[in-house]
Amino acid sequence: MSITLRGIGCAGGIAIGHVHLVSETTVDVVHLVLPEEDIPAELARFDAAIRETRKQLEMLWGSIPDNAPAELGSFLSLHIMILNDAALSRDPRQLIEEQHCNAEWALMQQLEILLAQFDEIEEDYLRERRADVIQVADRVLKVLAGHPVSHAHGQLATDRDTILVAHDLSPADMVQYKDIEFAAFVTDAGGATSHTAILARSLGIPAVVAMHNARELMKEGELVVVDGSAGTVIIEPDADELAHYQKLLQQWQRQQKQLAGTKSAEAITACGVPIELQGNIELPQDVPDMQDFGARSVGLFRSEFLFLASEELPTEDEQFEAYREVAVALNGQPVTIRTLDIGTDKLPKWFERSGGLNPAMGLCGVRLSLAQPHLFQTQLRALLRASAFGCIQIMFPLLSSVAQVRQCLQHVTLAKQSLRDEGIAFDEQVKMGGMVEIPAAALNVAGFLGLLDFVSVGTNDLVQYTLGVDRGDDSVAHLYNPAHPAVLQLLSHTIRTANALGKPVSVCGEMAGDPRFTRLLLGFGLRRFSMHPASLLAVKQVVRQSSLAELTAQTDAILACTDEEQVTPLLEQLNA
Ligand SMILES: C=C(OP(=O)(O)O)C(=O)O
Predict the structure, then answer these.
(1) pLDDT (tens digit, 9 = 90+) per residue, 110-134?
(2) Domain-located, residue 482
(3) What is the domain range of residue 55?
(4) Which residues belong to any copy of the PEP-utilising enzyme C-terminal domain (predicted)?
(5) Active site (annotated) includes residue 364
(6) 157 CA from centroid of ligand 1 (Å)
(7) Ligand 1 center from residue 508 Cα (angstroms)
(8) What CATH number is associated with residue 132?
(9) SS3 of 12, please?
(10) pLDDT per position as a tens digit, 375-386
């Protein structure tokens, strides 16, 4: 019998395929197939992780305070015993040798074998030791995660009909997944505008997040249907369901093909107004795909992904090369590069969070750059140097005060002076912009535009900060509502103010790539949208079918709503 599970659909479309469980522990594990010559290094990596874990446990055991409960000592010595058992410290080596897999995958397979044996045990005490075995394996996995296998040679064992099922996938994992083939992904955690969900959309494959217990209910290799629009996953569909979804899949593929036929069409409204559709990218290698979808310029280059993809802090030269590559590839068209925006869920390996209960309210975005002048100067110099090779615009994330804008511009002046002193060329006229992501920035956008050349609205964060809802937390995902009247008022105010001041304004959050909001934003006066390229054609289709004069009355009515429940039917009418 089939089972239907519900989560949050974060990237539309249908996929029918077989489950690949990414992990059973708190550390998500991928399956890599390694070349023969890498096996000795992988065995050494596994042995080193066992040694390091043993050292950690022995240190903990040796530092137990006198007044600690006696159970703590026995708990730790039990964990050392489990670790020393050949079943954990030796048998995975054999799997690495036989299957040419990575150490994490070998350990997970061995863990599954051990856990299956526990299922047979009737005696309570021994059965409870199951959790201890998982905890020890988890500890080894965390050590391995601190010394990751080089993915340069390994390949994830997936194919075109693989459905990846994970507890959560970090933005850093998703960067790696950009290069492999799979049909859809499903996670226990996450919200619709978490960074992982955004990256999923950029891959153009269906995705469902916030399934809570997906991994417990699915088995490796099982047939499932993922409906990314409805946010459902059907495990072992029956023949009727399968036939129904196969039909939907074909329909979806036909629609995608039809949309692909509009690639070369201009983004122009039915009444003849040109609308600028730009791409959001994470890495320089995203440019060709973006151009393939018909975008000529980049409205948001999330530069932090260069930092996430790298084991160490990228140097000025490394950053310069990446920015220059994009500038050159765009052949004179603008690329808006956002300075480092980390500190919440996007955490590079080299970054140590400084604590704080609410990371999204803490030292993140431009606050972090301003607090670490060396980091900021390195990035600004790299950006300015690259500006000599194309049309680079610099944008600062998470601004909340005009004083911060002033500080950012002082840093730019300093970086420019240092380049001049060294005789290094750059574009003296580089445009400076800011993200509107915090209500304070939206309400005071005129103040920001007094100093800046342009603004771009990051609706993902604007919704989060306006409604006080963590965008990555599925337990409050039902409260995350981009169509909330307060959000719409802030958006409209920002767009109208910038237009009145004659300064460019764009939206680069997920609302820009969601065709349900295209007409509303056009009605608010928006003429520049930046989105993940996979959404570009669907948005363009709506633009081409819209007449601006016809939208005004309806969008004004939506803006006048004070109750979010009034907005939904009016939005549906607007899109009908
Ligand atoms: C574009 C945005 O930034 P982020 O990369 O945080 O999604 C946003 O907040 O809308």
Answers:
(1) 988 888 887 676 666 566 677 678 8
(2) yes
(3) 38-145
(4) 258-546
(5) no
(6) 31
(7) 7
(8) 1.10.274.10
(9) coil
(10) 999 999 999 999
